[in-house]
Amino acid sequence: MTTLSETPTHDEELVDADDAKTPEDSDAVDIEEGSDGETGSTRARAPIAWSRVVAYAVLPALALLLALGAGYLKWVVASSDDLARVRAESVRAASEDAVALLSYKADSVEKDLAAARERLTGDFKDAYTELTRQVVIPGAKEKHITAVAKVSAAAPVSVTANHAVVLLYVNQTVTIGEGAPTDTQPVIRVALEKVNGRWLVSHFDPV
């Protein structure tokens, strides 16, 4: 038979339940509270995702700049190569043209100067043709004149894709009949125009 004193009251049951909680239960509560606190702190800071900024903005921009730089450098190199090629072509053409214009033999003067005329263009071609037919060819035949020209030095003054000016230092040796050769060293400014892929002389002026 149970007496009143042995029957636990409701308050005593609550106390016993609280006492029955283990340390592990308390730790679990603390961990949950700590987790909630950390989540709130993380949301509050909201750090910038620099890796995404670099991946989506900086790297593409850098790649574009590098591509543009490489393209510009390639264009500069190509332009420089083209200009060097044009300079070499124009200097070579001017030198060869000067030798052809100033060289002839008494027994082949018509043929020599006719070939030289094919290297000319514009008004200068007409003027050269008239001069050679009226003066040079008759004089060479009559006095047995022979002329030999060589270019000792040449330098480009200005060069574009279709126009060039070249300065030539020429040595010309003229022999009249049985006489002694006479040497002259004219400096000539030659202007050339590119016509149908060929450099032709448009001006030939002693300096």
Distance between the termini: 147 Å
Continuous helix count: 5
> What is the CATH topology assignment of the domain at 76-103 and 147-206?
Nuclear Transport Factor 2, Chain: A
Uncertain residue ranges: 1-7, 9-15, 22-42
Give the SSE string. HHHHHEEEEE
CATH class wording of the domain at 76-103 and 147-206: Alpha Beta
Beta fraction: 15-25%
Helix content: 55-70%
Model description:
This protein is an alpha+beta fold and 207 residues long. The protein has a domain at 76-103 and 147-206: Nuclear Transport Factor 2, Chain: A, CATH 3.10.450.50. The chain is built from 5 helices and 5 strands, in the order αααααβββββ. It has helices spanning 10-19, 23-45, 50-102, 109-117, 122-143, and strands spanning 145-159, 163-176, 182-184, 187-195, 198-206. Strands 1, 2, 3, 4 and 5 form a 5-stranded antiparallel β-sheet that branches. Strand 4 and strand 5 (198-206) form a beta hairpin.
Output the keywords.
207 residues; 5 helices; disordered N terminus; Nuclear Transport Factor 2, Chain: A; 5-stranded antiparallel sheet; alpha+beta; 57% helix
